Structure formats: structure tokens, C-alpha cells
Amino acid sequence: MAYQALYRVWRPQKFEDVVGQVHITRTLQNAMVQQKVAHAYLFSGPRGTGKTSAAKIFAKAINCKQAPVKEPCGECEACRGIQDGSVSDIIEIDAASNNGVDDIREIRDKVKYAPSAVDYKVYIIDEVHMLSQGAFNALLKTLEEPPKHVIFILATTEPHKIPLTIISRCQRFDFKRITHQVIVERIKHILDEENIQYDEHALIHVALTAEGGMRDALSLLDQAIAYSDDLHINMDDVLAVTGSISQERLLSMVESLNSGEAKQALNGLEESMQEGKDPNRFVFDFIHFLRDLYMYTSEDNMEDVLVRAIPDEQFKTIASQLSNHWLEQAIDILNQTQQDMKWTNSPKVLLEIALLNIQELQSKQVSNNQSSVSTELVQQIAQLEKELNKLKEQGVQAQPQEPAAQKRKAPKSRSNTYKVPYEKVRHTLSEATKDDLRNVKSNWAAFMDGLKKTSPPARAKLVDSTPRASSSKSLILSFKYEIHCALVLENQEMIENALAEYIGKRLTIIPIPDTEWQAIREDFLNQQQTSEDAEEQESTQEEDPFISEARKLVGDELLEIKE
User: Do 10 and 109 share a domain, yes or no?
Assistant: First the structure.
């Protein structure tokens, strides 16, 4: 017998085989059991998501000899006849090639005849949006009031092209794209049944390339099986049949762009184009690969959510060199490039420009830091000149010596991009209690887990933070990386509101770099110690009791004390 493609061999025969569409299969099953089957259905959704398969299973289930049932038995004459196509009462029509008025009139003339072999005559019209306007008008009356023994199932990938008068007469079910995890589990089951070995990352890449379509995934799987020589599907086989870019090349390009070596990155792009890679496929792979890098660097134990990358030693080494801010900007540039490529005849040129823009991100960051340093120095010099001129005009007067505790100044910030709020930090430290800090720390893990679901970008900015001190009104957070101090202020209100749900009160977050925390803490402790010493000295210097009595008798004006 001739070879059959996997998507034909493993076409769903029961509703439980239609993966990823539980919201539809459950509704249809309940309608059959409750005997509330409608006369017309519209199945819409992307290609390869199970629309036609669900329609055929539905036709079998309502005509099964065991009806009403949730699943067709597959053993009775009706089920077997519908499966092999020998039952003439199940009519499948391709509207792409039968889209005229005469074709629909033929259906309208035959629909009045009762079914010959089963209980219901079912018309499955695939790609119904291809019908002409006249054909839709011819179908309208029949679709609205068909005979009791007739059921219409319309399937389409473009429901917006169907007249509203048709849609309003049908129960509409929207099939959604199947998730990567569901596709991977399904093709794992198929390969296990076919006794074919595989690498799991290769299957993940097949699911990613399929873009939510199970039929596309099985077609790619068929190609990979045919390409491999030893019936073992690995990543190289999948990359070959999908035209994707290897991880080694993508890692090399990321490393080159991050280090400012644009020529090497452009050479990598040129080699990919010479090998016949599609520019659209290239930018698609690059975006998802940077996404994996971003996920991996944002949190620990994120290997399970990677869809394009394999977390080997080289991947981990390069990931440790990248910042989340750089990855965010690179993904934004590539996303914009992907949009622009739809309207150009020279996609390679746009890709080259995108790579050059990504390469400049690092140098822009350095130049911005340098410019901020230069601006700050100019301002400081101008201020010093004003003070010097003022001193020349007024003359320099000797100032009384201040106590050592008053001479202390705030430690100079090492940050050029973020100003540490020293007064707020000192005020918080003066009011901080161990109970307040203990309350924050005991709820911090649950707060971070909750933030992971509600706002992953905000959580990524808090990953390297540590609660240091807390009062009843404010919280000091120290950050491993200085840039996160400024970034966290962008989401400050949302973070404070989310934290309040876990600790029971609203705290104002005060971010500071880790490098500044130790200096501020030591300075505060020294001030506290100086104040305590002064109070102790005053308490020890009590006046002599004899002098106190003399002062009461004669007063301070007449009293003269001699040693």
C-alpha cells in the first residue's frame, strides 16, 4: 500500500484526539448528550487546528447507533461507513472549487430528500468564505430553515469574509492556535508509536515553526524523518528542513553585536543568505532566540520555558555577559524590522541596518554615561566658580569649628545616572524596626512569585534586589546593578501596590545600589554612636550637691566658685 503522510494516518477519530480545542469539543459533546444539536455550525480558525476533523467526528457521533454519546463508537456500520467515505449522506464540499450559484442550488434541491443510510444528512462546506455573493444568497434561506434531518457545518480560515447574514444563522466556534507544549506532547506520542527516536529540543523547534498548526507540525515531522538517515530526529535535521539558523551562528552573532564587532555579525548574516536562508525566517529565529536569552537571564531555573535555545555551556557563558536592557532594545529593533520587511523588496538591507543599530546600543550606553559625567562636572565647576567669586567679594571669615558629627557629609555617590536620596534613606533608617523588615522578608518570595504572573518585566527589575531596612512607611531596597535603581522607579506605583497586598500596608520603595548601602549604613551607625556618647557624657557630669545648695541660697549673681 502507498505511504500515507503522518497527518493523514494520525487524523483525529475521536474528540479526545482533537488536542488544544477543549472549549469546542466539550460544548459539542454536551449538546449531543442533551440532544440540543443545532441545524448549522460555523467552525473558524487558523489552518491545521482541527476544524474539518472535528466536523467529521461530529457527523459520526450524531449518526452513531449508540447515540446520544459523547464519542463515536467507531464500530457500528454508520461510524465505519462515514470513516471510509462509503456513506453518501455525509457530503463534504470544497467551496474553493464549487463556489458558484449553481453548486449551491444543487445543494438546495437535494437537501429536501431524507438520508438513506443514517439519521442525519450532514453538509460540510470547507473554505466557505470562497463562495460568491450569489452563492451565499442562494444558501441563505436553506441555511435558515433546513429540514430536520439536515445539519450544515461551515469551515473557514477567514470568517471576516462571510456575510453577517450567514454568521447570524450559525453557532460559531473559534478554533485557536495550538500551544507549543500541546503540539510537542502530541508528536512525542506519535513518534513513540512509530518507534522513531528523537531529541526533545528538535521537537520543540518543530512546534515553534508550525506556528500553532498541528497539520503543519506533522508535515515538518514527516520531512525530518525522511531527511534523517537513521530514524533519529535531531536538531540538525529539523534546521535543515525548516531553513532555520543554527544556535552556534546565532550565539556568535549575539556575542559580536554585544562586543561592538559589527563586521563579524554581518559576515554571519551574509553566510546565512548564501546558504539560501530566508530573511524573514532569519529575523523570526533571531527574535525568539533573544527572547530565550532574556528569559534565562531574568530568573533562575528557566530552562523549561526556552523554545528556541539549548542551554549548553556556550549559551550560559554568553547569557552572563548580556543585560536585560540590551536584550529588550535589540528585540524592539528586530520587531520593527520584521514589520518593515513586509513592505520592501530588499529585506537583507533592512536586516543589515538592524544589526548595525543593535551593535550601536552598547556604544550609546557608554557615551550616555560619559555625557552625563561631563554634564555633572560642568555644573559642579560652574557652582564652584560662583562660590569663589562670592567669597572674593565678601572676604573669607573664620568659621567656628563644628562638631565632628556635624562635619560628616553624605558619602559621594558612585552612580552617574541615579541620584541616591540620602535624606530619605537616613529618615527611614531612623524609624526602621526589625519587625517591619521581618514582615517584608517573610512575604518577599510570595510577592515575587505573584509579580511573575502579573508583570514579568517589573519582576525582572527586582530580581537582583534585597530588602535592607523598613519602617512603617518606607522600604530600602538595594540592587546589584545600578541601572535597576532607575528602572524600578518606572513601575514604582504598581510594585508598591502589589507589595501592599502581601504585607498589609503601603510602603514607599527607596532604591539604592549595593555599593552605596554599606557606606550609608556605616555612616548612620557612627552618627548614632556619637549621639549616644554625648548623652552619656552629659549625664555623668552632674553638679556638686554643696554648690547646688549655695546657688539656691544666694543666687547665681552673688555666687563665686573657686577651685
Answer: yes
